[in-house]
Design a protein that fits this description.
CATH class of chain B: Alpha Beta
Low-confidence stretches of chain A: 217-221
Shape of chain A: globular
Bound molecules: flavin-adenine dinucleotide, iron/sulfur cluster
Largest sheet of chain A: 2 strands, antiparallel
CATH superfamily of chain B: FAD/NAD(P)-binding domain
Strand content of chain A: under 5%
Oligomer: heterodimer
Strand content of chain B: 15-25%
Number of strands of chain B: 18
Helix content of chain A: 40-55%
Radius of gyration of chain B: 22 Å
Largest interface: A-B, 74 and 78 residues
Chain lengths: 221, 545
C-alpha cells in the first residue's frame, strides 16, 4: 500500500465514548489484576517462533484482527508475542485432530505453507507482500473450506489461526474497552443486570442502531 | 429427609471471614502411607469421585482420593478473566477424529479437586423418567438397569446439598427446588420475553448457585464468570460441597497425583491398589476397594492402560465394551441482535431453560429431543462464535464491537449412544510415557436432525423477543458414557451398583457409567448415581470387602 493512502474508516472505534476498562482496575482482586495488567506491560519475548516465522505470523495475525493498518499512535495488541508464549509453554488445549500435528508444529507448518503460497504467487515472502496481497492469500485459505491446503484440511487451519488470534486479541483490556465489556468483576460484581441497564461506570453505545451487520450477506432475518 | 447439615456439613466448614478456603482443615487432614491398605481409594476428585469420598468417609471408612490436578484455592488460584483460566482444563495431549471430531480441553474436561464442576456452568436439571428406558419407548439408545424412582431420593438429597435454586419444575417428574430462583439479567430477560410471545414455557433455573443463606457460602454477585471458576464460593462444585465434609470425617485428598495403572492380583483377580506419579516420583498405594472417577475420556484410558496378563486387551475389557458408547450433546448456540443493550455478561450464564422439547414428539421425524438454555459467552468465546460465521479482519472487529447488543441461547440435543463413538489408545505418548486417549466421534442422522430442529426453535424465540438478526454456531457440550452401566457384561462395563463386572472390588462412579444422557446437563445425575452406589456399597459390604 502506498503511504499516501489514507487510513480506512474504523467503524468499531468510538462506540463507547470515554469508556476505558482500566479505569476500573482498582476494583479488581489482586490475582486477576496481576494477570490482566501483565498484558498491558512489555510484551513477552519471542521464544517459540524463529525470526522468519515471527514475521509471517505477525503479518497474518494483524490481518486477521484488522491491526495491519492501525493508525499510530494506537498501540497494537502484541498478538504474536501472546501466541508465542502459549506455544512456548505448551499452554494448548491438549487435543489435536488426528490429521493435524499438535498445535505448535501446526503453526510452524502452516506459516511456512503461507509463505510458500506468497512466493509462488507474488514472488515475495508473505511478510513482505502488500496488504492486499496478504489479504488475498489469507482469503484463499478460508475459501478452500473443507478442502485440502498443503496437505491439511483448510478449515482446521483456519480454526487454528482464528482461535489463537482471537483469544490473544480479546484477552486485552483495550479490546474490552472497544466493545464495551466491563472486564474483571470480582469482588465488586454487578448490581444492575437487565436489558438496557448500566452500572454507574459503564457507558452506553453511542451508535446503538448503527448495526454494522444490517443488510449483510449471509445474515438471516 | 434429615437436615442437610446433619448429612453434609461442608458449607458450614468453609470460613465465614471472606477467605474461600478452610486452611486449618486442609492442614489437619489425615494422611495415609502408601503401604497402609486403605479401605477405599478414589481416582479423580470430580463430581462422582468426591461424592463417593464424602459418603464413605462419613460411614467411617478409611478413604483416600487421588487427583491429577491441584487442590485449588479459589482466592489465590482463580481469576476473573477468560484467558487466564486455562489452567482449569485438562490439557494433557489427546487425539480426536471421526466425521464430527469433538474438541476437548476447555469445552468439557476439568482437572484438580472439584473436577469439571469447577468450570461447569452450574445448570443442575434432573433427567426425565423416559431417559432410563429410551430403548423400550423409542427403540433408540439403551435402557438403564435402574429406573428413575430408584434415583429420585438421591436427586433430592443432592439438590439440598449443592443447593439448587429455581422455579417449580413442570417437566419430567415435576418437582420444586430448595431455593428460590435468582433474578435474571439481560439474556434471561430476552429468553423469557421471546418464550412468552410464543406461548412457550420457560423457567428460571435450575442452578447450583446459592440464593440466600447456606452455611458460610457467599451469595452470588452476578459477575458472569461461572465458567472460569467461582471465586465467591456461590456456585457449587465438590471442592466446596463435598470435600470439606469428607476431610472432617478423616478422608485424605492427595492432589497432583496422576494415577497411571490399576494393579490386579493375577491369582485372585482383585484390584490391590493403584500406581501413581507425584512430583515425578512413582508410588503404589494399597487399597481394599478401588473406585475410578476420571470422567469419560480418562476413565476408559486408565482401564485400557491397565492391561495385564489376566486382561490383555485392557482392564474390564473382555467384551470390548471399554470406551464405547461415549456421548456428547449437540450444543448449537444461536444468538440474536437487539438495538437495546443486553450485556449478557452481567449475570451467571446459567439463568433460564426450557425442557418443552425434551421428549419424543410422534409428529416429528426424529426421536428424543433437546433443551434450550441461556449461555452468555464472554468476549473470547463470543469471538469464536463470530469468527465461525467467516468474519475476519475489519469485519470481525466491527461485528465484535456490537457485543453488548447480542443475546445468546444454547441447545442441548440428545445425541444417541453408538458403539463406534469411543476412546481407544493412540500411538502418541504423554510425558509419563503412557499412550494418550484417541476419541472418535461421528453423528447419526437423528443427531443431525435434532441440531437443525433446536436451531430453528432458538431462532423463533429470539425473533419473537425482537431480534432482527440471528446467527448460529454448531458446538458440542458435555461427555458421558465410555464405561456404561448395563444388566450384563456383554453390554457394558459396570452393573447397576457401579461395580465392574470383571473385578469384584473395582467400581466406576463418574459420568462414564451413564447409558443415555437425555438433554439435561449431566453433573447432578452423575452425583446422584455416585451417591446411590456409595449407599449400596456401605450397606452391602463390611469395610473393604
Ligand atoms: C465448560 C463446561 C460447562 C459445563 N456445564 C455444565 C452444567 O452447566 N451442568 C452440568 O451438569 N454439567 C456441566 N458440565 C459437565 C460437568 O462438569 C461434568 O459432566 C461432570 O463434572 C463430570 O463429572 P465426573 O465425576 O465424571 O468427572 P470430573 O468432574 O471431570 O472429574 C474427574 C477428575 O478426575 C481427575 N482425573 C482424571 N484422570 C485421572 C488420573 N489418571 N489420575 C488422577 N486423577 C485423574 C481429573 O483431574 C478430574 O478432577 C460442564 C462442563 C464444562 C467443561
Ligand atoms: S456469577 Fe455468581 S455463581 Fe457465577 S461465578 Fe459469579 S458469583 Fe459465582
Amino acid at each position: 500500500m502506498s503511504s499516501a493512502t489514507p487510513p480506512p474508516a474504523r467503524p468499531w472505534s468510538g462506540r463507547f465514548p470515554g469508556f476505558d476498562v482500566l479505569d476500573q482496575s482498582s476494583h479488581w482482586d489482586p490475582v486477576t489484576t496481576g494477570v490482566v495488567l501483565a498484558r498491558t506491560g512489555m510484551a513477552p519475548d519471542i521464544r517459540f517462533f524463529t525470526p522468519h516465522e515471527q514475521g509471517i505470523a505477525t503479518a497474518l495475525c494483524d490481518q486477521l484482527l484488522g491491526q495491519h493498518d492501525e493508525p499510530t499512535p494506537v498501540p497494537k495488541v502484541p498478538l504474536v508475542n501472546l501466541i508465542d508464549s502459549r506455544l512456548a509453554e505448551q499452554q494448548t488445549d491438549g487435543w489435536h485432530y488426528d490429521d493435524m500435528p499438535a498445535d505448535g508444529q501446526a503453526w510452524r507448518d502452516t506459516l511456512s505453507a503461507l509463505d510458500a503460497d506468497a512466493r509462488q504467487q507474488f514472488d515475495s515472502g508473505f511478510a513482505a507482500c502488500s496488504s492486499q496481497q496478504q489479504a488475498s492469500l489469507i482469503q484463499a485459505v478460508q475459501d478452500r473450506g473443507t478442502d485440502d491446503w498443503h496437505g491439511l484440511r483448510a478449515k482446521r487451519v483456519w480454526s487454528l489461526w482464528t482461535r489463537y488470534a482471537c483469544t490473544a486479541f480479546y484477552s486485552h483490556p483495550s479490546a474490552w474497552s472497544e466493545i464495551g465489556f466491563s472486564g474483571p468483576a470480582y469482588p465488586r460484581g454487578y448490581k444492575n443486570a437487565g436489558v438496557d441497564k448500566l452500572e454507574p461506570f459503564e457507558v452506553h453505545d453511542a451508535r446503538p442502531s448503527e448495526d454494522p451487520l444490517r443488510g449483510r450477506r449471509g445474515v438471516q432475518r | 429427609m434429615s437436615n442437610v447439615r446433619d448429612r453434609n456439613e461442608s458449607a458450614w466448614l468453609l470460613p465465614a471471614d471472606g477467605k474461600r478456603v478452610n486452611h486449618q482443615l486442609r492442614q489437619d487432614m489425615r494422611r495415609f502411607d502408601d503401604i497402609d491398605e486403605v479401605d477405599l481409594l478414589v481416582v479423580g476428585c470430580g463430581a462422582g469421585g468426591s461424592t463417593m469420598l464424602q459418603r464413605l468417609a462419613r460411614a467411617g471408612w478409611k478413604v483416600v482420593a487421588l487427583d491429577a490436578g491441584p487442590f485449588w484455592d479459589p482466592a489465590a488460584d482463580w481469576v476473573s478473566d477468560e484467558a487466564g483460566s486455562h489452567h482449569l482444563y485438562w490439557t494433557e495431549p489427546r487425539v480426536i477424529s471421526g466425521s464430527d471430531p469433538v474438541p476437548l480441553g476447555s469445552n468439557n474436561s476439568g482437572r484438580g479437586v472439584g473436577g469439571s464442576m469447577v468450570h461447569y456452568a452450574g445448570y443442575t436439571p434432573r433427567f426425565h423418567p423416559s431417559d432410563f428406558e429410551t430403548y423400550t419407548r423409542d427403540g433408540v439408545g439403551a435402557d438403564w438397569p435402574i429406573d428413575y424412582p430408584e434415583l429420585k431420593p438421591y436427586y433430592e438429597a443432592m439438590e439440598e446439598e449443592l443447593p439448587v435454586a429455581g422455579e417449580k419444575w413442570p417437566w419430567g417428574d415435576p418437582h420444586s427446588y430448595p431455593y428460590r430462583p435468582h433474578p435474571v439479567g439481560g439474556n434471561g430477560e430476552i429468553f423469557l420475553r421471546g418464550a412468552d410471545h410464543l406461548g412457550l414455557t420457560a423457567k428460571v433455573g435450575p442452578v447450583a448457585i446459592v440464593n440466600g443463606r447456606f452455611g458460610n457460602r457467599a451469595h452470588c454477585i452476578y459477575r458472569g464468570f461461572c465458567l472460569q471458576g467461582c471465586k465467591v464460593n456461590a456456585k457449587a462444585s465438590p471442592l466446596i460441597t463435598h470435600i470439606p465434609d469428607a476431610l472432617a470425617h478423616g478422608a485424605e485428598v492427595r492432589a497432583n497425583a496422576m494415577v497411571t495403572k490399576i494393579e490386579i492380583d493375577e491369582r485372585s483377580g482383585r484390584a490391590t491398589g493403584v500406581h501413581y506419579v507425584r512430583d515425578g516420583v512413582p508410588h503404589f498405594q494399597r487399597a481394599a476397594v478401588v473406585v475410578i472417577a476420571g470422567y469419560s475420556i480418562e476413565t476408559p484410558r486408565l482401564l485400557l492402560n491397565s492391561a495385564c496378563a489376566r486382561f490383555p486387551d485392557g482392564l474390564c475389557n473382555d467384551f470390548d465394551q471399554v470406551g464405547r458408547y461415549l456421548m456428547v450433546q449437540g450444543a448449537p448456540q444461536t444468538a440474536g441482535r437487539f438495538d437495546a443493550e443486553v450485556r449478557m455478561y452481567k449475570a451467571p450464564p446459567p439463568e433460564v431453560s426450557t425442557e418443552a422439547f425434551y421428549e419424543t414428539d410422534p409428529a416429528k421425524p426424529y426421536k428424543r429431543g433437546f433443551s434450550i438454555q441461556t449461555v452468555s459467552p464472554l468476549p473470547i468465546t463470543w469471538a469464536e462464535h463470530v469468527a465461525a460465521q467467516g468474519h475476519w479482519g475489519a469485519d470481525l472487529r466491527e461485528y465484535m464491537s456490537d457485543y453488548v447488543h447480542w443475546s445468546c441461547l444454547g441447545a442441548l440435543c440428545e445425541f444417541l449412544a453408538q458403539p463406534d463413538n469411543r476412546v481407544t489408545l493412540s500411538e502418541q505418548k504423554d510425558r509419563h510415557g503412557l499412550p494418550v486417549a484417541h476419541f472418535s466421534y461421528s453423528q447419526c442422522d437423528n443427531d443431525a436432525a435434532l441440531m437443525r430442529a433446536a436451531q430453528s426453535v432458538m431462532e423463533d424465540i429470539l425473533h419473537a423477543a425482537g431480534a432482527d438478526e440471528v446467527i448460529t454456531i454448531d458446538r458440542f457440550a458435555h461427555l458421558v458414557g465410555g464405561a456404561r452401566m448395563a444388566t450384563d457384561q456383554e453390554e457394558g462395563v459396570v452393573d447397576a451398583e457401579c461395580r465392574t463386572f470383571a473385578v469384584p472390588n473395582l467400581y466406576i462412579t463418574d459420568g462414564s457409567v451413564l447409558p443415555t444422557q437425555g438433554s439435561a446437563n449431566p453433573a447432578l445425575t452423575i452425583m446422584a448415581v455416585a451417591a446411590r452406589a456409595a449407599e449400596r456399597l456401605i450397606s452391602t459390604s463390611r469395610r473393604g470387602n
